Amino acid sequence: MKVLVINCGSSSLKYQLFNMENETVLAKGLVERIGLEGSVLKHQPAGKDKVEIKAEVPNHKVAVKLMLDALVHEEYGVIKDIKEIAAVGHRVVHGGEKFSGSVRIDDKVMETLKECINLAPLHNPPNIWGIEAVKEILPDVPMVGVFDTAFHQTMPEHAYIYGVPYELYEKYSVRRYGFHGTSHRYVSMRAAMLLNRPIETLKLVTLHLGNGSSISAVNGGKSVENSMGFTPLEGITMGTRCGSIDPYLPIFIMEKEGIPIEKINDYLNKKCGVLGISGVSSDFRDIEKAAEEGNHRAKLALKVFAYQAKKYIGAYAAAMNGLDAVVFTGGIGENSSLVRKMICEDMDYFGIKIDEEKNNIRGKEADISAEGSKTKVLVIPTNEELMIARDTVALI
Predict the structure, then answer these.
(1) Which of 27, 159, 266, 308 is least crowded, fewest Cβ atoms below 10 Å from its Cβ?
(2) Edge-to-edge strand ranges of the sheet holding 2-8
(3) Which sites bind Mg(2+) (predicted)?
(4) 88 SS3 class
(5) pLDDT score for 77
(6) 19 in a labelled binding site
(7) Domain spanning 198-379: which CATH class is it, in words?
């Protein structure tokens, strides 16, 4: 069975085509700058050279058509006929309280997705555009929606309710949702396999660290906490997002900097985080380089990031009344030995010790715990696309 996995952004479309008989990737690619000048498809067939195709891509329907044409192309395609695609799995950012798991997409599900737009106005619309485009071009192919928020629907009520009037939850669904759920679910399941223990017996803290970062407490295979909240802005300081701050601070910034209310969301999401602290970049590779060269603000940005992650590990260990393993994933979690070291330093009380030689890896699955470390420390590259493909197969 061949399953196509699609992740649509406002101006991009990422895809992977899986052969689910052995869970191998036949091809993957990215359509960039949808609706903008300079649109391009970067298509990578397995075992072949990458192909770049420049074309006018005014909308997601054209992007889907361009992707499908590449998959069946006689030179760089990987299938002979579109009919070989048995199903399509879509990443959807926000399912609100409506979805506690992945679902087969039908008209009722589409209506519900549109109702959730007010919860994720930047993310859900392009997810919906991608679904609608595939439905129009491949009307007979079943589709499945896999939600970033679904894994966190097991959070207890006392963990997701904010300290605001309860009526706001009843009227507008104001609560903490958590994000990166597909990634946290994948690495927690993989951690159980690596530790050779039933996931039901494990208390894990999973750290998805990238330009957008979230940290989860996973108790017995279920998410009981996530650092992101009503939006992906809450939580740890990120690449360009401020993370959790004093609620009055945006008002203060607007008054002092003359920023109108309609622009403060963009400011907090794109001008803050380690970019704002360091003044160097939102890319941790640039920040680490600047820190090595003695840049104080770059060093500070790294310390802030590591310190906050450390606090979440401690808080979540308390929330679960125990901790068996810490799992690093995401672009930074998988690749930055320095960040992992800074987070795990001085965590002896929690039984966390890493081996510096084992920690000297990038993008590889590994146990980096020091000998005698009571709490295991793992690095597990995430694979959200594979999780989406597996869910798609299970539901069709």
Answers:
(1) 266
(2) 51-54, 40-45, 24-32, 12-19, 2-8, 85-92, 143-147, 103-104
(3) 7, 384
(4) strand
(5) 95
(6) no
(7) alpha beta
Residue in this structure with the two tokens 């309280």, named with its chain if needed = 97
Residue with tokens 């493909």: 389
Q: Quick one: tokens of 80?
A: 């002979």
Q: Per the annotation, does 209 bind a ligand?
A: yes
Q: Where in the chain is the domain with CATH 3.30.420.40?
A: 2-147, 198-379
Mean pLDDT of 268-275: 95
Which letter, b or e, does each residue of 170-198 get, where b requires 16 or more Cβ atoms within 10 Å of its Cβ?
eeebbbbbbbbbbbbbbbbebbbebbeee
Q: Which listed residue (148, 246, 346, 391) is catalytic?
A: 148
- Mean pLDDT confidence for 311-315: 98
Terminal Cα distance for the chain, rounded: 11
- pLDDT higher than threshold 80 for residue 122: no
208 is in an annotated binding site: yes
DSSP character for 117? G
Instruction: Look up 346 and say whether it is catalytic.
Output: no
| Structure-block tokens of residue 123 | 């993310």
Strands 203-208 and 214-219: antiparallel
- pLDDT, one tens digit per residue, over 133-176 is 999 999 999 999 999 999 999 999 999 999 999 999 999 999 99
Largest CA distance in the chain: 61
B/e letters for 116-132, b = 16+ CB within 10 Å, e = fewer, are beebbebbbebbbbbbe
Task: Determine whether 143 is exposed, middle or buried from the number of CB atoms within 10 Å of its CB (0-12, 13-18, 19+).
Answer: buried
Residue 210 marked as a ligand binder: yes
Is 333 annotated as belonging to a binding site? yes
Contact present, 141 and 86 (Cβ < 8 Å): yes
Cα(279)–Cα(299) distance, rounded to whole angstroms? 11
| 285 appears as a binding residue in the annotation | yes
Could you confirm whether domain 2-147 is CATH 3.30.420.40?
A: yes
